[in-house]
Specification:
- The structure is a homodimer of 492-residue chains.
- The first copy, chain A, is of the alpha/beta class.
- In chain A, the strands form 4 sheets. A 7-stranded mixed beta sheet of chain A has the order 11-13-14-9-8-15-16, with helices on both faces. Chain A has a 5-stranded mixed beta sheet with strand order 17-2-1-18-19, with no helix packed on it. A 5-stranded parallel beta sheet of chain A has the order 5-4-3-6-7, sandwiched between helices.
- In chain A, helix 3 packs across helix 4 and helix 9 runs parallel beside helix 10.
- The radius of gyration of chain A is 24 Å and the shape is globular.
- Chain A starts with 6 loop residues before the first helix and ends with a helix.
- At the A-B interface, helix 4, strand 1, strand 2, helix 8 and helix 15 of A face helix 4, strand 1, strand 2, helix 8 and helix 15 of B.
């Protein structure tokens, strides 16, 4: 980034102030709109993206090299996400309403009337990701969940797809009130956003280094604000001896397909494969890797980073390069596969570092105790996958599922972690460094909660209460009344 | 605190390691226990406190000077809180369960089976408060909510009541599994806890300076952890011209009673009173303050801090000392009341700083526009109170309630903020500096959420799933199934 007084930094400051002012002006309007209107805005945004779909996908393909099939699917996911969030807004449980009527006989002291609901937290800064130019970018999950919460958004576009970001920003601007979504460019603008007094929360998807720097900026403010960062994840896959014995070949093929999918440019890419020593799958794995065609990464900066990370991994003590990393050129990369013993893995924390791109490390364990000890050193991850045979692995399966749940936000059984369904139950998060906020998800309906804060109203007369809190439940929302959940209005 | 290599620091390190090891050992046991067993533990803790009630209250009175009537009430609140959390554990909605069955026809892609629930976050450090030696201390709200979440707790006792802390710690230890609650003393131990790799979250109640230092420590870890700090709050009270006209005398009396209750040693003590210029309540206010008997504060350190803060407030530009602060001695303090214009208030941020103890500032506004502008400079607060006459204040009431909700976690209407009901709907939180985590509450059932993190299970066979997530809802818990809330099991 430029030094503080350079012309670029001055321009960024002005631009940030304008964007944040627009967001601040929009905030009370968005917060006030009835839920059906808010839901309608999300659907209008989805419709507008569909209308411009061909143009959007074509520009995305030019800037990201991801291919129009993948991008068409990603656009469908992006609009489906906006529409699911519209449904969630109308359903209303995100408001987390609780009504406790006054109780003059309560012990130890009489209680006033207390009614709580969630309110939008205020303007949100969103940092777009490189690897999902639609679903985690200008119109992506962070933006959709902030809008669903009733918050305006200022997006810091990813430098990997600037023109696409502007196009999507224009499409959204045409469908939403002024100031609801604004797109900015450049690192100085990004840092300015995180520091701006009017910005009340940040959503971020990107690298551990970049996320850490911005998390520190948000936490170091004179008024710290919540920073929801999805950073790096190694997504371990654990295979038991019984799973190797019963279906080793399909596990090998599935693993290679998962870690090379999209050339490994997914946050859920499995980076560690725990196999029992003497697994006998080496040639199957190597053959599968050799069969993967080298392809274009998102950009040259990704390729350079991948080469460096893969070379660092290959240079660790005790690494056996099954398919050695090859220095690429331009934007093309070929997959790599390495192996080491669990003992060496435990001794070298760098072996568990995320390598963004098509490289993976096999960790070979001698017995369950060594496997569990090695797992205990794996950093917090978005996912942890267990391949096992419940009938034949005995108590080991339960212990592995517990270990997986201890270190990851999603536990996958006999499957693969790549692919994240956008649903009510999804959790896409996990302990540091997978995220900066282990209580929250960046995918699925619960993502809306990140941009809401509770307010309780005490003894406020009915006519002055938000409608959602009034007796008789005039908006038909799910609520907890005097401790009892009441879902009659919409479940009936 | 002692320098890093002093004997005291070395002792603290050893003691912290032992306490955290005990908590770490207890964590999986507590996490695994069935919900009715966990609820039973909370009730056993409450029963044990009741059994030792006379001894506990007597020691608390000796160490805090709060008086046995108040402390008996606080003990009742503390045990009622443990029992309410036991009820909440059995009710089970804190698990936030969602089940999305596999959907092979989902658009844009087929969906696996995904089931989410909350799991305990792990060992929790709790920093006890001085002003609630029972309800916000060793057996207080943070401890109760962590235990309800299934997390072991290491408490850093407040130096204001060390023997009481040890007594309550022993009472809890007799009722709970080993390692569930441990009590430590001293600042070095506190800092050691926040830095300990096994500690996964922190609950804190105390000063803005102390809370900020520990928040920075938690956020600056190589693996940052959530820090739930309740810091300082000025709790503005806003009175409209119509409220002055219709019941000015009772507002004046009520305000003085609220800010001098317990000699102002409450986090919800109102510190700012917004009155229309020419309100004519000055003599009523002054008479009420003069009628308050000076009394003992929690300790000399509180009195010294109060004297300094009150003198600083009195020294600001344009202050009229209605009842000037008087330098106290020992632990005795007398109430003070100051006044200034809204214009001077807006120009001096120091006028909105919390003064812990029986001092308060009247801010006099000329018109609604000036009132709203002044409110916009009030820092985030736990509460904001509006005294108005809905029939006669017109649109002003709505604007004031909105401004209150914008800046506070609880909006009180025609009442007083002191006193916090422990219920399902309560929110005791707010924007910085009221708290470090505006999404969360430290009082009420929702406080449990601070110590839980979600885990989603993908395609895990029924017999390996946590019972709470299995089809047929064998535990009878509230759940969201395929998007629809299902409360039949317990609401029927």
């Amino acid at each position: 980034m430029p030094p503080p007084n350079s012309p670029a930094a001055v321009v960024a400051t002005t631009v940030v102030a304008e964007a944040v002012d627009a967001a601040r002006a929009a905030a009370p309007l968005l917060a006030r709109e009835p839920l059906p209107v808010r839901a309608g805005r999300l659907r209008a945004a989805a419709d507008a993206l569909d209308t411009h779909g061909i143009e959007v996908v074509a520009l995305a393909a030019t800037e990201t090299h991801l291919g129009s099939a993948r991008l068409t699917g990603e656009l469908a996911r992006t609009t489906a996400q906006l529409r699911l969030f519209a449904d969630a807004v109308e359903e209303g449980s995100f408001l987390d309403i609780a009504v406790d009527h006054a109780d003059p006989r309560a012990a130890p002291v009489a209680r006033p009337d207390i009614r709580r609901m969630m309110r939008p937290i205020g303007p949100v800064a969103v940092f777009a990701a490189s690897n999902f130019p639609l679903a985690f970018s200008v119109a992506g999950g962070d933006t959709a969940s902030a809008l669903a919460a009733g918050c305006p958004v200022v997006v810091k576009a990813h430098e990997g797809h600037p023109r696409l970001s502007d196009l999507v920003g224009r499409v959204l601007a045409g469908a939403l009130p002024a100031g609801a979504v604004t797109v900015l460019h450049g690192r100085a603008a990004g840092r300015g956003l995180v520091s701006d007094p009017a910005v009340r929360a940040v959503g971020f998807t990107g690298s551990e280094a970049g996320g850490r720097a911005l998390f520190d900026l948000a936490s170091g403010r004179s008024d710290p604000i919540p920073f929801y960062g999805e950073l790096g994840s190694v997504n371990p896959v654990i295979v038991t001896p019984a799973a190797v014995a019963s279906r080793g070949a399909s596990v090998a093929a599935g693993y290679v397909a998962s870690y090379t999918l999209g050339l490994g440019q997914f946050c859920t890419k499995p980076g560690l494969l725990f196999l029992p020593s003497g697994h006998g799958l080496e040639s199957a794995l190597v053959d599968a890797v050799r069969a993967v065609t080298p392809g274009p990464l998102l950009g040259e900066w990704i390729r350079v980073g991948f080469d460096e990370a893969a070379a660092a991994l290959a240079g660790l003590d005790g690494v056996r390069p099954l398919v050695p990393p090859t220095a690429g050129s331009g934007i093309t990369a070929a997959p790599a596969l390495l192996a080491m013993s669990a003992a060496r893995f435990r001794a070298q924390p760098a072996a568990a570092r995320e390598c963004f791109g098509p490289a993976s490390l096999i960790v070979e364990y001698d017995d369950p105790a060594e496997l569990l000890a090695a797992l205990a050193t794996v950093p917090g991850s978005l996912t942890a996958t267990v391949h096992a045979e419940p009938g034949r692995d005995g108590d080991l399966v339960g212990a592995l599922l517990d270990a997986a749940a201890e270190r990851a936000g999603r536990v996958v059984f006999n499957g693969w972690p790549t692919g994240v369904a956008v649903t009510w139950a999804m959790h896409h998060g996990g302990p540091w460094p997978a995220t900066t906020a282990p209580l929250h998800t960046s995918v699925g309906v619960a993502a809306i909660r990140r941009f809401l804060r509770p307010v309780a109203y005490q003894d406020v007369p009915a006519e002055l209460l938000p409608e959602a809190l009034r007796d008789g439940n005039p908006l038909g929302l799910p609520r907890r009344v005097d401790g009892i959940l009441d879902t009659v209005a919409y479940a009936g």
